[in-house]
Design goal:
The chain is of the alpha+beta class. The chain contains 2 helices and 10 strands; from the N terminus they run H-E-E-E-E-E-E-E-E-E-E-H. It is 21% helix and 42% strand. Strands 1, 2, 3, 4, 5, 6, 7, 8, 9 and 10 form a 10-stranded mixed β-sheet that branches. The structure holds copper (II) ion (CU).
Length: 180
């Protein structure tokens, strides 16, 4: 009788170990992999309303590349301005002031989130045809080297949003966008 009990006990312990190991294996295999769709998602595309007479504006978003392939944003287009370009904000090494320059492409690595925010990259609109008005939307077409064209609706946030993010280092959604 005692022998049988031991045997049953050993069996159930073995089964537990196997189940536990399988669970660990599943956890290990899924750890670190973002549960993103197998495509590039343009998250939270937004711009800020412009004062009357303003000639330029910028759009920001996060690119979530859920594919297995590194990609590149190679151009952007819109009908709201004469020129739509990919820009980078950076500190001028000569005078320490913020400056911006046009970049030919923006890397969008596989499995990573690439942020366009006031600290770094943005989509620049030059020679605006009309001011950007709060709560309205405009179409922006992004051209990726591999994923091709993606059209998104850019939400126009209140005009104060950009200023506030520069002064307090925070924007309306509470994310830290750093100083300018
Ligand atoms: Cu710019």
């Amino acid at each position: 009788m005692k022998k049988i009990n031991n045997h049953i006990l050993t069996g159930s312990v073995s089964l537990s170990i196997i189940l536990f190991s399988a669970l660990l294996l599943i956890l290990f295999m899924t750890a670190g992999k973002p549960s993103w769709p197998d495509e590039i998602v343009v998250h939270d595309p937004h711009a800020y309303a412009t004062p009357a007479g303003a000639k330029t504006a910028a759009a920001f978003f996060t690119l979530k590349n859920g594919t297995q392939m590194d990609d590149k944003l190679i151009s952007a287009s819109s009908t709201i301005a004469d020129i739509t370009e990919i820009h980078e904000n950076l500190v001028d090494p000569d005078d320490g002031k913020m400056m911006m320059r046009k970049v030919p492409a923006l890397d969008v690595p596989a499995g990573k989130a690439t942020k366009l925010d006031p600290k770094g990259y943005h989509i620049m609109f030059v020679n605006l045809k009309e001011p950007l008005v709060e709560t309205e939307l405009f179409k922006l077409t992004l051209n990726f080297e591999k994923a091709g064209l993606k059209e998104v609706d850019v939400v126009i946030a209140p005009i104060g949003g950009a200023k506030k993010s520069h002064k307090s280092h925070k924007d309306d959604d509470g994310h830290d966008h750093g100083a300018h």
